[in-house]
Amino acid sequence: MSDYGVLLQQVINGLSLGAMYALLALGFTLVYGILELINFAHFNVFMVSSFVGMWALELLGISGQGQVLTGLALAGALIFAFAATMLAGGVLGVAIERLSLRPLRGVPGTAAMITTIGVSYILFNIILLTVGAGSENYPNPLPVVRWQFGEVTLELKTLLIWGVSTALMVALHLFVNRTRLGKAMRATAQDAEAARMMGVDVDRVVVTAFFLGSALAGAAALIFGLYYNYTSFIIGYTAGLRAFTAAVLGGIGSVPGAMVGGVLIGLIETLGGQLIAVRWTDVIIFSILILVLVFVPTGLFGRAAPTKS
Amino acid sequence: MTRTGTRLAILGITAAALLFPLVNQNDADIDSAANALAFAALALGLNIVVGFAGLLDLGYAAFFAIGAYAYGVASSWQVQPAWSGFWEPFQWLDLVTRFHAAGGDVVHFQVSFWLMLPIAAAIAAFFGVLFGAPTLRLKGDYLAIVTLGFGEIVPIVARNIPSVTNGAMGLNGVAAPRAFGFDFGIDATPYYYVGVALVAFLIFTSQRLKDSRIGRAWMAIREDEVAAMAMGVDRVRYKLLAFAIGAGFAGATGTFYVAKLQTATPEMFMFPVSVMILVMVVFGGIGSVWGVVVGALLLQILQSWFLEDLSGWLHALGRFIGVDWLQHVELASSIELIFGLILVLMMLYRRQGLIPAARRITPLSLDEQTVRPVPAQLAPNALVTTQDGAQRQLLEIADLSVRFGGLVALQSVELSVPRQSVVAVIGPNGSGKSTLFNAVTGLVAADRGNIRFAGREIIRLRPHQVLERGIVRTFQNIRLFPNLSVLENVMIGMHAGLATGPVGAVLRLPATRSEEAAARERALEILALFGNRLLPRADHPAASLSYANRRRTEIARALAARPKLLMLDEPTAGMNPAETSELADQIKSLNRFGLTILLIEHKLDVVALLADQVVVLDHGEKIAEGPPAAVRRDEEVIRAYLGRSAVFA
Question: Shortest Cα distance from B153 to chain A (angstroms)?
Answer without folding.
Answer: 5
